[in-house]
Write a structure and sequence with these properties.
- The protein contains 18 helices and 18 strands.
- With 602 residues, the chain is an alpha/beta fold.
- Among the domains are: 41-239 and 314-349 and 416-478, Alkaline Phosphatase, subunit A, CATH 3.40.720.10; 480-559, Arylsulfatase, C-terminal domain (2-Layer Sandwich); 561-601, no CATH class.
- The chain has a ten-stranded mixed β-sheet, sandwiched between helices. It has a four-stranded antiparallel β-sheet with strand order 15-16-17-18, covered by helices on one side. A two-stranded parallel sheet has the order 3-12.
- A hairpin with a 2-residue loop joins strand 16 and strand 17.
- The protein starts with a helix and ends with a helix.
């Protein structure tokens, strides 16, 4: 045998003795570092009507240790924007598509009949969009929802039919936090569903505790199979009616006795100290803010209690979220869970400035609520905060929910979990609610569809993936020329670079467009329209393009969201043909009587 053949034979023999068998090799690979990493779980928490500075980590006085802790572990966003009311925000959050194209340009409760004739103005999530839950479920994720849905309850519209495997969902815009009771007479009952079927709440219900309990239950139900989960937790806190357990309310007695102006200034100072806004941030005093000094002692006492219940509800929310975070740690899933916390819109300011007046009492009392001072916030009580204290919740920003001012659109956003490298830092980069879906998909390794899904045409995701911001690769994901348009009930905005174009209609607006540098002037105090006419015109053109491409329709002349809600409530109460006929007869009766009397006299 030639020497080289002998040499190769010896080498092959040595290798065969050194290499493992096929079975040994498979075991070795499966246990090695080459095994596919476990995909991250995702928990998306959505507060309701939470103001920009309500959390301790955003400048507030409310005790929120659990959310402040994840802010220290993760990344806070100081320039994140959402829609100015709930259903449009939820539609964009869950699809990455503009609310108008998704079928939710406004909440259905405030849509005028002139616009409801259009298919994309129904206020319910259209079939032309795909939810992030559907995409994650298709990718092998367990998907759960516990909380407020408000995107439709008709056939094919409930969350159990939009990608969520397990659900307990409130279909309405809001409801009582202590029992199954509606909060406005637009609903005959509080419409809760579990896995697509009508659901009766337990007797010991309190919204934040119950929804966290259900989330934990859903997570534990499939934990053993090792598959990742997506848990969407849209809480009721702090939507009307503002309610909380007595133990939390007691902690805020006396905290708000100096009034809303003092609180608004204290929060501005604290947000500056934290680095959330520039040191020279100025504020406007909103025309809806009353004069605290002219109130009687009894009025101040009542107003302070209203806000104390608000603070208590925020702290109760934080406490129960802490239970969820602790549970994730106890089952060894916390370190592999991406947690995102934000709010659907800015602070709610629809509470009456005089809640004990005859007019203000009519709706709560018709639903069986009381407004008594001693029981304020407890079971059977109807509580709100007024526009005056809402201005403090939005501090140092301008306006609040329903309006396109920064106070209505800029809210907290905290992201923590795997790959979040900027622990405890603040990102001042602009971001928008449509960015959440592509970010979640990126973390899960899932690709969003372009224009077709399961054989049907769908709207493409327009949001940006925030992952490069979260991992520290970039400082911003939107460049100076990217335009992000927004419209709600005639209020409008366009964001481009550091600038914002703003139009406010109705009593709080002047019918003119304004231009602000919202990075240096987040309080929207200095209008740059005259100083920068070229930028103003370019952004106006960009907004007009946005309106065309997203099929934005003009609201009817004289439209007011509060007036339209009242009209829709009245229509709901008299919507049966018999009642409509009776009401018509009552309206026409005096004219008929006058006509008959005139005929008799002739």
């Amino acid at each position: 045998m030639p020497f080289r053949h002998l040499f190769f034979l010896l080498v092959l023999t040595a290798l065969s003795n050194a290499l493992p068998t096929a079975a040994e090799s498979a075991d070795s690979v499966s246990a090695s570092s080459f095994a596919a990493p476990k995909r991250p779980n995702i928990v998306l928490v959505l507060a309701d009507d939470l103001g920009f500075s309500d959390l301790g980590s955003y400048g507030g006085e409310i005790n929120t240790p659990n959310l402040d802790a994840i802010a220290e572990e993760g990344l806070r966003f100081s320039n994140y924007h959402t829609a100015a009311n709930c259903a449009p925000a939820r539609a964009m959050l869950l699809t990455g598509v503009d609310a108008h194209l998704a079928g939710v340009p406004n909440i259905p409760e405030m849509l005028p009949p002139e616009l409801q004739q259009y298919e994309h103005y129904q206020g319910v999530l259209g079939d032309n969009v795909v939810t992030v839950a559907t995409l994650l479920e298709d990718a092998g994720y367990h998907t759960y929802l516990a909380g407020k849905w408000h995107l439709g309850a008709g056939p094919g519209k409930l969350p159990s039919q939009r990608g969520f495997e397990r659900t307990v969902a409130l279909a309405d815009s809001g409801a009582d936090n202590w029992e199954q009771r509606p909060y406005i007479p637009l609903y005959d009952k509080a419409n809760w569903y579990a896995d697509g079927e009508p659901y009766q709440l337990p007797d010991d219900f309190y919204s934040s505790r119950f929804l966290v309990d259900k989330t934990i239950e859903f997570i534990d139900g499939n934990l053993a199979d090792g598959e990742p989960f997506f848990a969407y937790l849209p809480l009721q806190a702090v939507h009307i009616p503002v309610q909380a357990p007595q133990t939390y309310i007691d902690r805020y007695r006396g905290v708000y006795q100096e009034g809303w102006d003092v609180l608004r200034e204290a929060r501005r100072s604290r947000s500056i100290e934290l680095g959330l806004v520039p040191p020279d941030t100025d504020m406007v005093r909103m025309s809806t803010t009353d004069d605290w000094s002219v109130l009687s002692d009894e009025q101040r006492r009542y107003e302070s209690k209203r806000m104390a219940v608000y603070g208590a509800m925020v702290e109760a929310m934080d406490h129960h979220l802490g239970r969820l975070f602790d549970h994730l740690k106890s089952v060894d899933e916390y370190d592999n869970t991406l947690i995102i916390f934000t709010s659907d819109n800015g602070a709610e300011a629809s509470g009456s400035a005089d809640p004990l007046s005859f007019a203000a009492r009519q709706v709560p009392t018709s639903l069986g609520y009381n407004l008594d001072y001693e029981s304020l916030g407890l079971k059977g009580s109807y509580n709100t905060i007024s526009p005056s204290f809402a201005s403090a919740a939005a501090s140092p920003l301008s306006l609040f929910k329903f309006y396109a001012g920064e106070g209505g659109m800029r809210v907290p956003l905290i992201i923590t979990g795997p790959s979040v490298s900027k622990a405890g830092e603040i990102s001042h980069a602009f971001s928008f609610v449509t960015d959440i879906t592509p970010t979640l998909l990126s973390f899960a390794g899932v690709t969003a569809p372009n224009d077709r899904y399961r054989g049907r045409a769908v709207e493409a995701v327009i949001g940006k993936d925030l992952t490069p911001l979260i991992t520290g690769e970039v400082d911003r994901v939107y460049n100076e020329t990217d335009s992000i348009g927004y419209e709600l009930a005639g209020h409008a905005a366009l964001f481009q670079g550091d600038y914002k174009l703003l139009f406010t209609r109705g009593a709080l607006g002047d019918g003119h467009w304004h231009l602000y540098d919202i990075v240096r002037d987040p309080g929207e105090t200095l209008d740059l329209a005259q100083e920068q006419p070229a930028r103003m015109q370019a952004m106006l053109s960009a907004y007009q393009r946005y309106a065309r491409e997203n099929k934005v329709l003009e609201v009817p002349e004289g439209y007011s969201h509060t007036k339209q809600l009242l009209i829709n409530v009245v229509y709901h109460q008299f919507k049966t043909p018999a009642l409509i006929a009776m009401l018509t007869a009552l309206i026409l009766l005096p004219f008929w009587v006058a006509y008959r009397m005139k005929k008799r006299s002739t």
